[in-house]
């Protein structure tokens, strides 16, 4: 897809920096519009650096419907970032 992502070293360096809080931008995109999507890909990006920090992929079978995939991906991603010790 040609999407650039930060590597593991950069990820851990970001965690070590003395920031009060990270400013993230996030958005989800489904494979098809409407109520028949099978996959949702959610991306978290560092707002000030314009670097992708984390992504989540959710399949419709993991959610109650295609509409609930994006909120599920967001919650999973935020949980993962906060479990890593990032202050978002």
UniProtKB/TrEMBL annotation:
Name the record gives this protein: Uncharacterized protein
Organism placement in taxonomy: Eukaryota, Metazoa, Chordata, Craniata, Vertebrata
Superkingdom in the source lineage: Eukaryota
């Amino acid at each position: 897809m040609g999407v650039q992502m930060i590597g593991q070293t950069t990820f851990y360096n970001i965690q070590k920096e003395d920031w009060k809080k990270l400013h993230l931008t996030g958005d989800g995109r489904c494979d098809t519009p409407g109520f028949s999507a099978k996959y949702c890909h959610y991306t978290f990006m560092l707002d000030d650096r314009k670097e992708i920090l984390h992504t989540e992929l959710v399949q419709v079978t993991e959610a109650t419907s295609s509409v609930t995939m994006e909120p599920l991906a967001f919650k999973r991603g935020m949980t993962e970032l906060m479990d890593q010790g990032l202050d978002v």
